[in-house]
Amino acid sequence: MPKVLWVSASPSLKYFHRHLLARLAKVSEIEFWEYYQTLDEGSSIDNAVDLLDEYLANTDRPVHLIGHGIGGVVALSYARKYPTRVASLVLLSVAVQPGINWHSYYYARLQSARCDRDFLLRSIAIDLFPGICPSRIRDLADRLDRDLVEAPSSHSLFRLDILTEGGVNMPVMIGGAHDDLAITSPALYGWTSYFKAEDKIWQIPVGGHFFHHFHPDLVGYQIQQFWQKLEPEIILCQLTGAEFN
């Protein structure tokens, strides 16, 4: 079992993790775990946590977990349920109220929008990926559409789920972007109310909800620094961080 495990719960969006995963793989042993929810299954974070526990059942040491969005919520839920099995937690684009995510942003927009689903998804694709090439919008909207079905989130037009707000026992790093319309700065910085001395929050000025896709070197360097302070031997080699322009 590697020292670091990336937790994903959005198969259609995992493409946007690959640059950061490649960056982190240069400095530490890292594996990728993904939850697949079939159409016959009920939407459940708990089911994803149970399957993750099965995967980590034979681990002989605590593992460092990292996740983005709903995958981050699965990692957070696992860390709260099995705190002795988690060495640290890195959460990217995860609000202090974990029920707030791009799904809740979509359904909030849907309630007030006077447009069809396809138009709204294309609009939200532009919101989540600021500055994206217009030729990519159709593909992004299709990926987001699939994620509404595939990811273990029980938000709907009629109900927005509320999950437990609070901290965790292990060291945690929170990362986000200032221009993320789904996870706003107050939703991100709310984590600091539960921070311990070793915890860290870092926000990049631009990049949107998937900021780690656009700035993998910057994000990777911040994560590397966080891990190195906790467990120096986790870092196999040193890489410098690029400056933000």
UniProtKB/TrEMBL annotation:
GO terms for molecular function: hydrolase activity. Residues 45-219 form the AB hydrolase-1 domain. InterPro entries: AB_hydrolase_1, AB_hydrolase_fold. The keyword Ubl conjugation does not apply. Gene3D superfamilies: alpha/beta hydrolase. Signal peptide: none annotated. Pfam families: Abhydrolase_6 (PF12697). Keywords: Hydrolase. This is Alpha/beta hydrolase.
